Amino acid sequence: MRILCHAAQSLRNERGNHATKKPAKASVNLFEKDGAGYLVVHTEKSKSGKGEKFALKANLNRCLAKFVHEGKLTIEFKEPSVNIMISKADPGQLKKLLSAMKTSFEGKSLVGVGVLASATNKPIKIGKTTKINILSRDDYKTKLSKKAGIPAELEEFRCHGLGMKQIDLRLFKLRHLTVLDMTRNNLSTLNPKLFQLRLKALILSDNKLDERAFRPLKSSPIADSLQKLDLSSNQLTSLPSLCTLPKLSSLIIDKNQIRRLPARLPNSLTILSAKENKIFFTEFARFHRFQSLDLSDNPFSMLHKFKVDTSKIPVAKTLAQVAAAKILKHKLPINPQKVPTRLNSLLESIRFCPCGEPLSDRKFMFLSGYDVRRYTSNTDAVAPMPNNFVIPQLEFCCSSGCFAKFSTTLQFEEDPPEPGSDEDGMQVD
Ligand SMILES: [Zn+2]
């Protein structure tokens, strides 16, 4: 057993002071000679090919094992008086090491236990490679040669500006990958296996992706883990459903052709940047608060006269609609992977009255003004329109009472048309 980890060493002097060396990538293993056990530490910097050997028999002050479950362990040796601090190790391997060291400490042999490494020579691989940045074709050859492959423990992979049409298939096998960044490539489709990864951050800016690539998103493992999604500078005209991403906190979709933002956003979403799109109006829930919201360089050309008032059209509420609204009202936990697709899409389409009530139908519609400053905690909010923080937002109310109240207090105030300007003001391009 060889443990790939980080290791730091500190010297204890008579007064108990420690002089600590910085943690370095390391490989730690156990070795036995003439019946006596040793801990062997190789670091990238260690000059000797044999590494540093520490006898174990009756030579331990103590082991600080409180954080073994986090991959950390401190071992205090008597002679020499040093502490070895191990971090970023596999917790399972550390537990094995700990119990094997106890056996060695008591002077018993570890032969046959399956934890000894055969030699003390410097291993080929030292420490974990948790991050790889690829910035050129040469990088691809040297850092990911066919022989070395992609390290199984990789956590972050970035590959920028290489014109890649596909994501490297080997990445889909990684169990610890949490950040995948494919900025400035040539992706127009996405392998469905991507959505099986449990990523925290997916960065696909500056590619050729449209919404079709994200169809598998909402009912896949990635939906449960994703916290940051950057799809700026692509070819999206709409967005996939986002309310099934319970941890999403940052969404960057600048420089696309998006016309409408989803009405329902995950409660966790606090950063939204949708600059340079084709958005005419918003539909945000009034209770949603952003940390930062940037909607600059969108047309926001919705006017009162363009709205089609659906409130006069008689529509019978279905039981499912009523149920969906109740689910949201009482914040019942729903696993989108377990409920029927129809109920899911119903839940995604539910709007909220400015009073906060989820709506089972869409009556009492009006065009309100949405002042971005009121809904962002950031004090330096960006004006979505030139010198104007108020954008048109489509609003539905739960009752005639709410309609009477909010349609007066939140009414969108249109700018008077400029003399000589185009009458309908709906020009997009
Ligand atoms: Zn209401």
From TrEMBL:
Organism: Oikopleura dioica
Pfam family, one: LRR_4
Gene3D superfamilies in alphabetical order: Ribonuclease Inhibitor (3.80.10.10)
Keywords: Leucine-rich repeat, Nucleus, Repeat
Name of the protein described by the UniProt record: Oidioi.mRNA.OKI2018_I69.chr2.g5678.t1.cds
Domain PIF1/LRR1 pleckstrin homology: 1-109
